Amino acid sequence: MQQEVTNSGRVGIEYDHINLENLKKLQDALSEAELVDISKMTMRQRMVKSAEEIELIRNGAQVADIGGAACVEAIGERVPEYEVALHSTQAMVREISRRYPESDIMDTWTWFQSGINTDGAHNPVSTRKIQKGDILSLNCFPMIGGYYTALERTLFFDHASDRHLEIWDVNVEVHRRGLELIRPGVRCCDIAEELNEIFSKHDLLQYRTFGYGHSFGSLSHYYGREAGLELREDIETVLEPNMVVSIEPMVMLPETLPGAGGYREHDILVVTEDGAENITAFPFGPEHNIIP
After folding, report:
1. Does 166 have pLDDT greater than 90?
2. Which of 4, 24, 110, 158 is the most exposed place for a label (fewest CB within 10 A)?
3. Where do the coiled-coil regions begin and end (predicted)?
4. Nearest to 263 by CA among 170, 138, 154
């Protein structure tokens, strides 16, 4: 770095992606340079996608749908969660390699939970075996070239209790309304507030666990995601064409209550000039996802 960068002037750094140890190394290596935080500026650039990025994300959403179908294919009585997850992950990895034969394959996986194990957004996969009447959580995450996409669905095996169906229907209502609200000119916080009203009307808002969606693109556990494009009450960002966001409402009822478990639906949308395009095709709701 000392050879590439003149030891004077200003050097831009994303402060939110550097730890104290590495910051000290940079300060020592470039002792005469001024280190400037450019994290908000670069985040803003990443929030609006190019046509090439959108095409990559679109392919990722299609791969996620294939992973979801593989999950459903593997579901059965006494099948352990990890077997369903493995079957889905293999299907996505093979599809990515088919679409991008010269690519690196990394960090594509499925999380799949059953019963009360669904009570968190991304609980680890376990050895628990599926039982009739279980609520199920499908979470497919393909990565292509550093770009993540996702598919998340609530399912049930064999049947769902009346209370489970009631809660599921409410979450689906919130999800549908969220899909309708994604369009240019709308503030993230206003979307969150309107969706809160639906949960509140059904006395479920206290079981909501996190935001209603977020930016998609170059994100992972290595380098985070764009915090300025989260569908939360505290984010005033206005949606623009070529932003890519998810709608993913979730409520979680604890084990002591009827209808216990986590309910989550997740679609990815590309904001257009006059609305939004939903690039997730996998169906959602009780009419599609009670698996016999």
Report:
1. yes
2. 4
3. none
4. 154
Q: How many secondary structure helices (H) and strands (E) does the chain include?
A: 7, 13
Name residue 266's amino acid: H
- How many CB atoms sit inside 10 A of residue 219's CB? 19
pLDDT of residue 220: 59
Block residue for tokens 């770095």: 1
Q: What is the pLDDT of residue 29?
A: 87
Would you please indicate which residues are annotated as catalytic (active-site) residues?
122
Residues contacting 113, CB < 8 A, separation 6+: 81, 123, 125, 126, 128, 136, 137, 139, 262
Q: What share of the chain is helix, strand, coil (3-state, %, to 5)?
A: 40, 25, 40
> Which class is 44-291 in CATH?
alpha beta
pLDDT for 48-105, tens place per residue? Answer: 999 999 999 999 999 999 999 999 999 999 999 999 999 999 999 999 999 999 999 9
Contacts of 156 (CB under 8 A, 6+ apart): 133, 134, 135, 136, 164, 286, 289, 290, 291
> CATH 3.90.230.10 residue ranges in the chain?
44-291
